[in-house]
User: What shape does this take?
Amino acid sequence: PSAMHDINLKPPPIHFDDIGGQESVKRSLRRAVRLSTESVDVLQKYFEHPPKGFLLYGPPGCSKTMAAQAMATESGLNFFAVKGAELLNMYVGESERAVRRLFQRAREVAPSMIFFDEIDSIAGQRQGFGQKGGGSSTSHGGLNVLTTLLNEMDGFEALQGVVVLAATNRPQALDPALLRPGRFDELIYVSPPDEEARKAIFRGVADKRRMNEDVDIDALARDTDGYSGAEIKGICAVAGVAAYDRYVNAWEDDDTGIMMHDLVYAIQSQKQQIT
Ligand code: ATP
Assistant: This one.
């Protein structure tokens, strides 16, 4: 029992189908899973160094964490997840021990997967003070944790059957040592959703909520260029509240569900917040 309570989180029930678009991300992650259970024989046929570390990078709210969760749900691998910042909120020496223990347990129950979310908080450039986190103790602690992480990742045998996945929205802030061959050598860009993906996200919401027949998903997808998946979910949530208020205040049994104008209004109010 440590500050990290039990690191082996129960995988949240997120599936690849819950993620709109991002087909190439899904393909890369499925390959990563496959690689973790591939025989040495096959690996040697195709790779000098089989990829073992996968880094998801891209702007916030665009399904990096979700993709890792879907991978955990669908792969059947034993899943360990930890947030970078959690590792820093520990006593001196504790975080390093936690990282070593994490890898040890992952190896014991291989095939397995370790997911470091927000890895930039422990793997920022080694130049004293990071932009985030501030204080010198944090930067120093981060450095030791990073060194421990790199040691654990080096050495092929040590990691057989263990996939290491990390996510960041500040790839430029990462210590380059992390990206050297044999470490996080496969970079997976998770882009903002394109029009097709935005349609899929709206459709995903429409499948679960009550949406009026007047909702035009194609138009919504067109009007949300540049929005993240999280922002689109936010728009749907705001529209849901407006529709619920109408339902509550209706004199008659006026259950329209979420209407197009609720969504359009939500998009407009969000645009005003951004600009
Ligand atoms: P951050 O870098 O801020 O941690 P992230 O890229 O890890 O962001 P997630 O946490 O995976 O983003 O996504 C945030 C929320 O946005 C999700 O819980 C989900 O509701 C929604 N979302 C984002 N992208 C998609 C998508 N492609 N399909 C469906 N929902 C999405």
Q: What stands out?
A: Residues 19-22, 60-66, 167, 169, 193, 197, 201, 204, 229-230, 233 surround adenosine-5'-triphosphate (CB under 6 Å). The radius of gyration is 22 Å.
